Amino acid sequence: MKRKLLFLVAAIIFQASYLNAQYFPVDTAKLNTAYNELMNNPNTLERQKKFFDAFPNTWMEFIMTYQYVPYSKYDLTMYSLAEKHIQALGGRVTLIKDSIYCKKLVNIAIGGKWSADAPNYFKLLLHQVMWNRMDGMLYEISQLRSGHQMQFWQFYWSNIVKSDKLKTEYERLLKINSDNYPKEMETMSIAFEYFYDGINDINDFTRK
Prior knowledge:
Layout: H1 2-23, H2 28-40, H3 45-54, H4 59-66, H5 77-91, H6 98-109, H7 118-132, H8 134-142, H9 146-157, H10 164-177, H11 182-195
Helix pairs in contact: 2-3, 5-7, 6-7, 6-8, 7-8, 9-11, 10-11
């Protein structure tokens, strides 16, 4: 009995530690201060780095920070700032090295799920960065385990309707990178097949 109790306590402690590690919220006051300072003087590495470091590092941090919660007493300040913050991450953080910048964006996208507003803004940024910093992005993707690569591409290609624009982008990526990143492009192809045509729409369970 005593051994079972000790095992149960250990399991609870482990689970609590795991949850704390996974779900620790972003310091939104620090993030907003860094954003305001960046907007006032965007051309300094110090301010760019301060905002970049304060921005969420994982999908869970990202969605906890910017998600919409339809309750009257819920503070939607961060939800309202999502587009501005993501635009700053895309257009104002220009002095951060590609290796650091791309690693962060790839990491956030792992496990991401498409939705309107903040997730969509971030997905649009991913597509923009893929073409502006392609070598950096694909290198960071290549360092991931296969399952995490699939999760990245799942979010990258997820769309509520079939898109000729996405199909053209997919074909171009495949053509340009098949020689240098054959395994990564194979994973990307599988993800594209399954997720670019509305498969990630949580409101539609009837399609085959």
